[in-house]
Amino acid sequence: MAGLTLVPTAQAFADEGQWQPYQLPQLKSELKRIGIALPAEKLADLSKHPMSAILSLGGCSASFVSETGLVVTNHHCAYGAIQRNSSAEKNYISNGFLATSMAEELPAGADAKMYITDKVDNVTAQVLQGIAPTMSGKERHALVENKIKALIAECEQDKAYRCSVPSFHRGLEYYRIRQLMIRDVRLVYAPSDKIGNYGGEVDNFEWPRHTGDFAFLRAYVGKDGRPADPSPENVPYKSKDFLVVSAAGLKNGDPILLAGYPGRTSRYKLPEEIRFARDVSYPKRVTEAKADVATINAATEGDPDAQVRYASVVKSINNGLKKTEGLVEGFHRKDIAAIKDEQDAEFRSWFSQNNPDKDFLKELDTVIASDMALTEEEFAWAVANDSDLLKSARTLYRLALESTKPDAEREAGYQQRDVPFIAARLNRLEQSFMTSVDQARYAAALQRYSKLDPATHPAGLDALLPSPDTVVGLYQQSELSKTAQRLAWMKKDPAAFQTSDDAMIKLAIRLHDIGMSLEERRKEVNGNLERVIPQYMQAVIAWKNAQGKPVYADANSTLRVTYGTVSPYSPRDGVTKGPFTTVEGIVEKHTGKEPFIAPDNLLAAINEKRYGSFKDPVLGTVPVDFLSSADTTGGNSGSAVLNKNGELVGLNFDSTYESITKDWYFDSAITRAIHVDIRYMLWVMKEVDHADNVLKELSIKYPAK
Prior knowledge:
Distance between the termini: 46 Å
Shape: globular
Largest sheet: 8 strands, antiparallel
Radius of gyration: 25 Å
Helix content: 40-55%
Low-confidence stretches: 1-13
Structural class: alpha+beta
Number of strands: 23
């Protein structure tokens, strides 16, 4: 498979880089240097162990750990499935859940999917064919989108697969990725959140950490072995491969590999983009998230059922909030913009000496400025639409309009291939929605919107929005809060929408043209970005190669491999942290008050020192979490942490607070990923939750006595 030139030098690497599997043979000497025994060529082969056992949950990572479709991931990645099966009376969030047989396993939800990448093709030439320099941004974007839709349609002729064509290096390369899509996912086992989320938001992104962030799911398919819609008749998926578990664990300095689906990084963005994020975009997002959580908490106070329904929503918002706060603080703690200024000045000097096009950099700056300006309006639009019911109405109306077109001409996201996903989202709302709460959120959002800088308000929007004091009436005059009604609207044509008396549908129609105007402007901006940024990236890659520095694409939710070592770090002078925490730390943190309530049976097992074969010979106890220097980000949650032989030794679930800015700048001295140790997972399963049936299903290699 063709790829960009890579110039490997051990001095340049540290442990930076989220590598596409095909690049790993080029890193052979580096992997050998840190002690990885697995051949790099094997790691590059998606059909061979261990890569064939790695999968995506569509936002999180996971891996197969048995031949009967058993999958391990983070507790917080399975949180939606746990929450959807919970109620105030049957609270699996607080009490945990264990299916002692396959018959007891619970549906993870209509939107739960597993994606197994089995083929990756470089399709850059096909996507970019026919592009002319005279095209407008919108024309260019439309041509690229149409090529991508055609490539996806060709790939998805077998309906067992879901395909995508993401760009790499901000549009310089395109790869078509084929994934087997499992549509029947079930919850097998999850410890109590007093284990799986021990420390809660207080400890989120912090170290030391004592969280058992793990859970088990299972993939089911039809009796023919092919993906099928959820059904009692389905059977466990026969995993082509699965990871063997090593209970021997790791020690300080040991090498690790980490495989998963990191979400988004911004390592190649310009200094002005960093300043925009630091000074404008991120502070706004922090304010918005805090206000939204406060509204939800006030609206659900004293109502256990409402709190369970919104538990996953609040957890998700809080996780994003803590990360964004960490980014803002990190940008101020270390002036990444100034570091990038120096790098940018060096690059521009090199570029001016090696390229005749002197106007290109001016054009680059102009396009970036237009992107940032439009982003401000899009943020205001999002605040003005912060209602799950309104979003549902807008989606339904857009689906009706797009459905009048031939499938190939529909907007991506509204083609026939997307209809089941839309139905799943509309269905899922039932488990995480209450009219009174959504109503409170929308009224508060409208008030916040009115206080944003008027210059960022999309033209014409203010006159069309309801006032906060009329929101109650909107909800009273809409039937979209009922799942059956939402699903019924999926089959109706635009005329039915135009004549509807449903207040939310009428509001969605009223706002539609402004939403489309923003979308059209975004296509123009994106088309210009897709024209200019790849040229910039090509020059940056040439510049970095000339210095012998690593070249890897920013994360984009595709399968990547990173590596590192088990390592402590020093966040400030005189302080060293890590690399392991132990079960004794759980007892030290236990207060009996949220979020530091450890289950009685866990405390008893610690106090009685029932450590068995999971006792670390150096620590003298059971390790809980550990640090490594691996390069990770959001989406890597649940990623398999492998030892030098490719055996499962932990799961990635977080980063230290000081590491959060690694999405923009990798600082090898302080960047650390946080992993739950497999020995703690096994110990909890054996001594605390007695998940004997799950333990028996795993292939576990115990240390020699």
